[in-house]
Automatic annotation (TrEMBL):
Stated name of the protein: Guanidinium exporter
Family: Belongs to the drug/metabolite transporter (DMT) superfamily. Small multidrug resistance (SMR) (TC 2.A.7.1) family. Gdx/SugE subfamily.
Gene3D superfamilies (alphabetical): 1.10.3730.20
Record GO terms (molecular function): transmembrane transporter activity
SUPFAM superfamilies recorded: Multidrug resistance efflux transporter EmrE
Record has Transport as a keyword: yes
Organism: Rhizobium grahamii CCGE 502
Any Gene Ontology biological process: xenobiotic detoxification by transmembrane export across the plasma membrane
Topology in membrane: Multi-pass membrane protein
UniProt keywords, alphabetically: Cell membrane, Membrane, Transmembrane, Transmembrane helix, Transport
Keyword presence, Lipoprotein: no
């Protein structure tokens, strides 16, 4: 259950990171509100997950999911470049997340 909560926290992390782009400097009400909700949900779910998971592992996985998801969404939604070196780095982050989960 803790891993599911952590995964959901990582998804909300992606939501607020991408949401920042749409807030236009926190001048647009709906995107700002949704971004704030994602921020609170992300941290709250992380807090629940670390009740049973090691904090170092949970934090690294949380930020990893957020990083990978945000980069991929940036490529898909915002036209960020998808160069081979960037994708290789994303693959390394995914490998690290998998390794941490296997050793937790």
């Amino acid at each position: 259950m803790a891993w599911l909560l952590l995964f959901l926290a990582g998804l909300f992390e992606c939501g607020w990171a991408i949401g920042l782009k749409y807030t236009d400097g926190f001048t647009r009400f709906v995107p700002t509100t949704l971004t704030a909700i994602c921020m609170v949900a992300s941290v709250a779910l992380l807090g629940l997950a670390v009740k049973t998971l090691p904090i170092g592992t949970a934090y690294a996985v949380w930020t990893g999911i957020g990083s990978v998801g945000t980069v991929l969404l940036g490529v898909w939604l915002l036209g960020d470049p998808a160069t081979a070196p960037r994708l290789l780095c994303i693959a390394l982050i995914v490998a690290g997340i998998g390794g941490l989960k296997l050793t937790a």
